[in-house]
Write a structure and sequence with these properties.
alpha+beta, three-stranded antiparallel β-sheet, about 25% helix, about 25% strand
């Protein structure tokens, strides 16, 4: 990352990173100094799931992410209609992975 002369941040995205990683479960834990978001892909009928990506954020950045995500969801729903909440969906919570301890 580098700043150009107009005080704008130039961000580089590699080809591999641009492909992205699919996730259908996120587990969020925190300590007094950071938030950790583990993105996981759970497959039907497979009792084991792996963390595909882990993001560590400061509390300030976690809050900015929350606000930005809320803003983007509002914009999406304004165009495409309300996103249906999948209430009652059960997700196995014991993957043998990280726990909520800091």
């Amino acid at each position: 990352m580098e700043e150009n002369q107009n005080n704008q941040l130039s961000i580089e995205l590699s080809e591999e990173m641009a492909e992205g990683v699919y996730s259908n479960l996120a587990i969020i834990t925190h300590s007094n100094s950071e938030f950790v978001i583990d993105f996981i892909k759970v497959m039907p009928g497979i009792p084991k799931a792996k963390v595909k990506s882990r993001i560590v954020l400061t509390p300030q950045h976690a809050k900015r992410l929350l606000m930005a995500l809320g803003d983007n969801i509002s914009k999406f729903e304004a165009v495409h209609g309300a996103i249906k909440n999948t209430e009652g969906m059960t997700v196995p919570m014991n993957f043998g992975g990280p726990t909520a301890q800091a």
